[in-house]
Amino acid sequence: MQEALISDAGEGKEKRRGFYVAGMPLWAIVFLVLTAVVSLAIGHYSLINGDDILEIWSDRAGSLGQVWHIQRTSPLVIDPFFYHGLTFFGIRVFGIRPFFLRLPSLLGFMVMQVCLFYFVRRIASVQAAVFALAFPMVTGGFLYTVEVRPYGVLLGLFGLAMLSWQTASRRDEHRSLALVMLALSIAAAINSQYYGVLLMLPLCAGEAVRILKRRRPDKPMLLSLCTGLAGMVFLFPFMKGAAEFRAHYKAGNVPYQSITQTYNFLVLGQSTFSQEINHLLAILLGFLVVLVFWGCIRLRQSQGARLPDSEFAFLLTLAGLPAFAFLLGHFVTHAMESRYAIGALLGISVLLSIALAPVLRNRIARSIVFAALLAWFGWNGMVVIRESREYWDRALASMVITPQVMAAIMASPTQMLYTQDIDLVGFLAFHDANANVLRHVALVYSVDEEMRWNHSETDSRIVENLKSFTPYTILPYESVMKQPVGSVFVLTHGGWNWMDKAFASGQVPTEPVGEAFGGEVVRGVHPPGSQRQLVP
Question: What domain range is 50 assigned to?
C-alpha cells in the first residue's frame, strides 16, 4: 500500500547518502519526532477549554444516534458528522482523556507532513521535500494538533487527497488504490468541515489542465472525484441546524481583509496586527509571491517534466484558498474564520519548498535553513508550553471559591451563582473536582442582550441548544432579571461576554462581593432611594 502511493517511476532519482527510512532522510525523521514530542508536551500542560468543550459535550452522548440527533437539531459546533463520529468512538473506548481526544488531530497533522514530503520529492528534491514537511511546524496550523477540533484531521485528509491525486495523475496503470484513497479523502474532508468542499477547487483546476494537455478526459479520475464529491449527501441532514447560526454569526460580516488575516494566521500564527505591521507584511507577501514564481519558473525550465502544468495549477489554486473562502463566506455562508481555509497551508508549504529548492541543494545553506527551523520551532514550543502552564495554574487557582463568596451564594434567594460565560460552566464541568460548586451555578442567555452588546446571537443559540440535552441549570436572562435583588452574579470580561457590559450600563444596581472564576462577583441591590431592604 505504501509503495502504491509514494513510489513513482517518473520521479527524479537522487543519490542517497546516510540514514533513510521509507525514503525519508534523518532530517525528516527528526522533524516528525519533534512534531509529536512538542505537541504532546503542549497538550500535557493545556487544559480542555473553549470550543473543545463544546465538541465533547456533543460527542459524549450515550449513542451514535444521539450524536447524530444533536448535530441535526441542536448543534453546539457547526461541523459535519465525520469528526463527531470519530470523537464519539474515541470517548467510548478511552473515556474523556485529553491525550486520546487530541490524538486524531496530531496524527492528521503528521499525515499531512508525510504527504507533503512525498509530493515535493517527486517535483523537486529530497531536501526541498524535508523543508515542505518541516515548514508547517512553525505556522499557526501546528496549534491545531492540541485541539479537539476537526482541523488537524482536515489537514491530513487534504494531504492524502493531494498525494493520491498526484499519484493517479502520473500513472496509466496500478493506480486503483490511489483513486480509491482520493475519493475517500475528499468525502471525509467535506464531512469534517463544511469548508472542506474547497478541496475540490484545486483538484478540479489541476484536472482541467490535465484534460487540456491530454486532449481527452481521464474517466477513472473523474469518477473518483465525483464519487468523493458525492459525499456531500451526508451534509444535508445537518444543514438546517447549522443554518440557524447563519443570520447573526459572531464573526460578523466577512470583509475582504479576512483574506490577508487568513494568510497572517496560517504563516505567522496570528491574524490581526497594527496597520504599520500589515503594510510590512503585505510587502513581504509580495516578495514571497515573486520568489515562488521565480523558483517555479527556474524548476520548470531545468526540469519541466517534474512539475507538470496540472500540478502547478493545483498548487496555485490550493495556496489561493483564502480568497475562495472569502467569496464563499461573503456571498453564501456569511461566516468566515481564518481556520476555514487551513488547507491553503499545504499549497504554501509546497510552493515555498519549490522556490527554495536551488538554495537547499547547497549543504551549508541547507544546514542553516534546517537549523533555523529547529530553533524557531523549539523556541515557539517552549513559549507555548510556558504560557500553557501559567494559564493552567491561574485557571485552577481561580476555581477556589472564598468563604465570603460561598456565603453570599447560599444567602441569596435561589442559592445560585449566575453567569453568562459558557467557557466557565464547561471548565467547571470538566476540571473542577468539587461537583457541589457546579450545582450552584446557573448559565443565563439572552438573544436580545447579546445582539445589543455584541451584535451577535451565536452564544445564546449555543446555550439554548445545550439546554436540550445537558443537566445544567440554564435560564433566560430576562427571567432572572425580574427579581435581581439579592441574586449573585459573576461577571467575566473579554471575548464574547456581554453581561458585564449590561451591568456596567446601569441595568442592575450591584454591590461587590468578591472574586471567583477569574471574574467579579456582585450582588443585586435595590436602586438608590428605595425603602426595601436587601436580603441579608
Answer: 2-6+19-242+363-389
